[in-house]
Amino acid sequence: MSHKIISKKQLSEDVFTAEIEAPLVSRAREPGQFVIISINNEYGERIPLTIAGADPEKGTIRLIWQRVGKTTAELADLQQGDEITNVAGPLGKPTHLENFGTIVCVGGGIGNAPLLPIAQALKAQGNKIISILGARSKELLILEEEFAQISSELIITTDDGSYGRKALVTEPLKELCQRNPKPDQVFVIGPAIMMKFCCEVTKQFNIPTQVSLNTIMVDGTGMCGGCRIEFDGQPKFVCVDGPEFDGHKVNFDLMMKRLNAYKDQEQRAHEQYKKHRCKIGLDK
Amino acid sequence: MNISVLSKAADTVSNCWGFLTVTDKENQELLQQLLQKQKTGKLTPTDRYKIPPQDMPEQDPITRSGNVNEVATGYTETQARLESMRCLQCKKAPCINGCPVRIRIRDFISAIADGHYKKALDIIKENSLLPAVCGRVCPQEVQCQQTCTVGLKFKDSTKAVSIGRLERFVADLDQNAGSVPAVAAETGMKVAVIGSGPGGIVTAADLRRAGHDVTIFEAFHKTGGVMVYGIPEFRLPKAIVQKEIDILTKMGVKITCNFIVGRTRTIEQLLKKDGFDAAYIGVGAGLPRFMGIEGESLIGVFSANEYLTRANLMKAYDFGSGADTPIALSRKVAVMGGGNVAMDSARTALRLGAEKVYLVYRRTEKEMPARIEEVHHAKEEGIEFHILQSPKRIIGNENSHVIAIECLKYRLGEPDDSGRRRPIPIEGSEFRIDVDTCIIAIGNIANPLIRQTTPGLEFNKWGNIVVDEETMATSVPGVYAGGDIVSGAATVILAMGQGRIAAAAINQYLEKEKKNRNQRM
Fold it and tell me: Which helix (H) or strand (E) holds B32?
């Protein structure tokens, strides 16, 4: 089965979104789930990407990704009408949806993408949604409008102060936690370091906090265990036990190190691809 | 009927221990003498005992540890015929009782001795659909060859008739022929086969032969299951597995990859909404077991599944020159475990450029579940065996990279439930081995995905599916299961045997279903 790119858009310097034909996934998928894609059947790498949305009637899913390595760069170079060889999913356990009351949704960088369908579904359950979206700068902020539609309050922070508050997301998060009544639940999705510090804040206030993890995976079905994290001192597999976990029990320090396991090799592959791509450009 | 055989290029055959060589010419002379004797009815059991056991020609250890090509290159025609003449043609044929699928071993060997290779293969195919695979990866020494009279006579199972090598010989001759089994008239019944490993392949073939509309669902992007992600190329070339898959496609079996049953569609949806009349679950074990010791999440610790999948399926050995999947650049590797998967991991690490590979096992070589041949190959290639040792913890540096394992020494105590002597740690015997990579190869447990998503399906306390062993039927009508998800980690041949039992039962079930439906109409 091939997966045609119906439309594709660049959201910021390194962030892209595409609507992709995947009828079975689009019908089965629930908020919080992801797919594993690869571009080349023989030599391609399998990478997990969260499903940012779906249109079951059209049979499409929406993916949002950041250009960080070779495969995500190759994906970014595909155009409307091109095909993605393999899309497997939906994978992972869906988000546990419930009317908790007031929920703070914290998104950082590309994390806004997986957070959006979860926030939308929580809103549909009758929760009051307060969103905090963080980015390094204004240009890198994504999905602001979509979050504005479902949030009773929307707080934007940027590292450089080019938009919203000049702060890290933990600052407004702490303020919200200090409110009376305090929020009933917090969802955080973003860089591991951000999730770690958000969890430290909410822990002080004893507010249950869900995080969605995006570790290195190969098969995505529990077979390899490469995605394992330390949860409450025990190994857990992000692909079958997650991707969502009680953030207060995740060993983020170890997870961050594991995320860098192939950093050197990945960088080299990416550099090589960029060089190769430049040469292709010169031929034209 | 005799199919012609191209004589192999190699005219000298190196002994598997590496120091003796026999020329093919000498072998041919011996064969002619024996054939002459046989013709005149003078070939005695004593003559047969005297025929030297034919060693498998293989790449020499130094060359092969630098490539991923198959280690064992296969018997020459002369060797195959000599080896087959070692068979005493016992009346009782105890070898057949040792075979999980009861291949008529004596008869196929006799056909090889007579030079009737096509006939030999036809006999094998009555019971086994994957002879090229099973000839390579079956643990013959604990199955057919264990009960072989010749081996018993020499009190050495390695001197039994090499049934597996002979099976491989005739199967490989057929690799180019590619005969496609006949398919019965369409029955209009639809069957889902979940998983494209050895069990799934034979089940699909048998069901399709009966005329059913068969679809295989595979979670990975490639078919073949453990035969492509787990067993390395140097032991089972991917092309052999692909050929079996191609035959299925030619028979009209449909294959859908990237389809995770339980997630993409559940079994219930397949049966109730997608029009499938029956399903076979052959998803394998699918969840790696870890040791539960300190440091197992450090960078550089892999499950054997992950390590082998990266290397085999994703071709990480070509990282930087084509393949996009990286793998650890290891110098010193410790593999924990004593099974075939441990041997595969150790030998793969060596081929990926490791300088030192240690195999750490808490019992002795005698208790190792790995095949003798694999142990022998591993040692020959320079894998260092550390027996009666097991890691107590894995030690990392400030970046959480593995730098060493701390091991305990063990001694053997009384036999445990498995009949093997229980390993007992020796207190205070801690010592350190410096390594940068650890591969945990201590087995798999049942993957929870089907369990979580299939209400009504009965599982045992280990998470394996409960079946009626006569039919492989599960607690859900129309749903059958076999292979590792039923029996825990086992072998290709067992998965295949169970798949065939299930296929036969499904064929019966569908026949009944069809009758019931016709009556209702």
Answer: helix B24-39
Q: Which fold has domain B190-286+445-520?
A: FAD/NAD(P)-binding domain (3.50.50)
Structure tokens at A111: 């994390």
Which residues in chain B touch residue A48, judged by CB atoms under 8 angstroms apart? none
Closest CA to B426 of B408, B405, B406: B408
Positive or negative, the Cα torsion across B511, B512, B515, B521?
negative
B198-209 vs B238-251: helix crossing angle, rounded to 10: 20
pLDDT of amino acid A51? 93
Q: Which residues of chain B are within 8 Å of residue A230 when distances are taken between CB atoms?
A: 297
Which residues does residue A103 pair with via DSSP β-bridges, in sequence order? A129, A185
Which CATH number applies to B290-442: 3.20.20.150, 3.50.50.60, 3.40.50.1820, 3.30.360.10?
Answer: 3.50.50.60
What is the per-residue pLDDT across B9-63, written as a single tens digit (0 to 9) for each?
333 444 444 444 567 788 899 999 999 998 888 899 999 999 999 999 999 999 9
Question: Measured between CB atoms, does B302 come within 8 Å of chain A?
Answer: yes
Q: Could you give the C-alpha distances from A75 to A68, A87, B338, in angstroms and in order?
A: 11, 12, 41
A19: β partners: A7, A62
Topology match between the domains A3-91 and A102-213+230-253: no
- pLDDT of A6 strictly over 70: yes
Within 10 angstroms of residue B275's Cβ, the number of other Cβ atoms is 11
Tell me the pTM: 0.90
Strands A234-237, B254-256: pairing is: unpaired
**Topology given in CATH for the domain delimited by A102-213+230-253:** Rossmann fold (3.40.50)
HEC-encoded secondary structure of chain A:
CCEEEEEEEEEECCEEEEEEECHHHHHHCCCCCEEEEECCCCCCCCEEEEEEEEECCCCEEEEEEECCCHHHHHHHHCCCCCEECEEEEEECCCCCCCCCCEEEEEEEHHHHHHHHHHHHHHHHCCCEEEEEEEECCHHHCCCHHHHHHHCCEEEEEECCCCCCEECCCHHHHHHHHHCCCCCCEEEEECCHHHHHHHHHHHHHCCCCEEEECCCCCCCCCCCCCCCEEEECCEEEEHHHHCCEEEHHHECHHHHHHHHCCCHHHHHHHHHHHHHHHHHHHHHC
Q: Which of residues 44-63 of A touch B (CB under 8 A)?
A: 44-46
> Could you tell me which CATH number the domain at B12-176 has?
1.10.1060.10
Cα separation, B410 vs B429, whole angstroms? 8
Give the CATH superfamily of A3-91: Translation factors (2.40.30.10)
- Per-domain boundaries in chain B: 12-176, 190-286+445-520, 290-442
Domain boundaries, chain A: 3-91, 102-213+230-253
Task: Give the separation between CA B448 and CA B286, rounded to whole angstroms.
Answer: 9
Residue-wise pLDDT tens digits, B66-82? 888 999 999 999 999 99
Whether B12-176 shares its CATH topology with B190-286+445-520 is answered no
- For tokens 């086994």, the residue is B128
Is the Cβ pair B297, A41 closer than 8 Å?
A: no
pLDDT digits (tens, 9 = 90+) for B80-133: 999 999 999 999 999 999 998 889 999 999 999 999 999 999 999 888 888 999
Range list of H helices, B234-311:
238-251, 267-272, 304-311
CB contact (8 A) between residue B286 and residue A1:
no
In one-letter notation, the amino acid at residue B469 is E
Q: Is A41 an 8 Å CB contact of chain B?
A: yes
- What distance in Å separates the CA atoms of residue A172 and residue A196, rounded to the nearest whole number? 16
For residue A112, the one-letter residue type is: N
Which residues from chain A sit within 8 angstroms of residue B326, using beta carbons?
262, 265-266, 269
